[in-house]
Amino acid sequence: MMFDPLTSRYLKLLQKGTLEELTPECLYALVYSSFDYEILKKKTKGTYKTFSITSTLLGLSSTPLSNSQITSRTIKDALVSSLFDTYGSRPDVEKKEPEVPFFVKIQGREVEVYVSLISKTSNHMLRSYRGPITHAGALRPTTASLLSYKSGVSKLAQAVRKGEVDGMKIVDPMCGSGTLLFESFYLVTGCSPYRIWLEEGGIPVWSRLGYGDLEECRKEVEKREEEGMAFLEQGKVTFVGNDKVGGNLKMVRESCEVLGLRGRHFNTHCNGVSEFTFDAGDGVAISLCNPPWPEGRIGGDDPDLEGTWEALGEWSKRNLKGQEMWVLAPPTELSGVLRMKAKRAMKFRQGKDELRWSQYLINK
Ligand SMILES: C[S@@+](CC[C@H](N)C(=O)[O-])C[C@H]1O[C@@H](n2cnc3c(N)ncnc32)[C@H](O)[C@@H]1O
């Protein structure tokens, strides 16, 4: 059993294999010939459960397997053909609510096939802290988790756990509904977002996969929860959210309530960024921020966009002396308005947008 902190999924390993070459043909051949998909079979002969395939590719850039969609399709084609050629009937793909959500990890030549044990659907973007109303410009939870992870939040939390760092504060001066902060909370504590669903009576997919799996997951969820919250109780990690819109902070506070987070772990402020003061204290502070974007993009309705970005740059220089700030930017001239040089920037795609997650080290 494996817990994937970025997608908050519990995964059970089904099969492992090694590719002879990093090509779609070799991947097809491996999946076609050597994987046993017993889990897909239904009791009635020749019928199958529906499935979906998500793939995670590591260390494959600039190889013919670098595109996760093409790779997932190759795996799906091989799996369907293998079952058809052996048993004469095909299983159906169901993206929204598959009975068996497969996750395939390919790292170099090693291929591992997992099944997700946790979710009503395989939709790993559902998070229990999200209320029925979400911020128009909210980040995808999995994107926010990745951004937080890439900025080193988990490593910092480890350093705090080991006593190498006094404490840490994670601050988002334009937090919206707080996605970056809540995903950081999950990374810092290792808590599972699905604990609430457990309290609501369990997850149907699990029972289909076997009661043993359900029990194992339940125990692990409880253990993580206990250890993660105990760590937070030590008061060494604080989350701070600010936004100029009160309605957004209401969403943040509602989410805090769902997660059982109290004021001393999670502070909210309602200010324009220029008026927002933040004290890093004696420990380390890290700011994660997804400022408004230009018109035409999600949440892009700021009449003085440049002014807002400029104010963010000034805020960081006043409040984050000697600390670091990470900013999510579309590839426009906007980040130049911050008047700071990024130490590094990670590029990634979300839908049609090419985005940059940039790190700024603020002078003392
Ligand atoms: C793209 S949204 C952030 C969304 C957030 N990451 C989420 O997932 O919900 C940008 C946020 O910046 C806030 N904002 C815009 N101008 C601001 C300012 N001058 N001071 C503080 N917050 C501001 C907006 O209210 C909005 O919530």
Automatic annotation (TrEMBL):
PROSITE patterns: THUMP. The keyword Signal does not apply. Pfam families: THUMP (PF02926), UPF0020 (PF01170). Keywords: Methyltransferase, RNA-binding, Transferase. It comes from the Eukaryota. One of its GO terms (cellular component) is tRNA methyltransferase complex. GO terms for molecular function: RNA binding; rRNA (guanine-N2-)-methyltransferase activity; rRNA (guanine-N7-)-methyltransferase activity. SUPFAM superfamilies: S-adenosyl-L-methionine-dependent methyltransferases. InterPro entries: RlmKL-like_Mtase, SAM-dependent_MTases_sf, THUMP_dom. Residues 1-119 form the THUMP domain. PANTHER family: RIBOSOMAL RNA LARGE SUBUNIT METHYLTRANSFERASE K/L, RIBOSOMAL RNA LARGE SUBUNIT METHYLTRANSFERASE K_L. This is THUMP domain-containing protein. It comes from Triparma strigata.
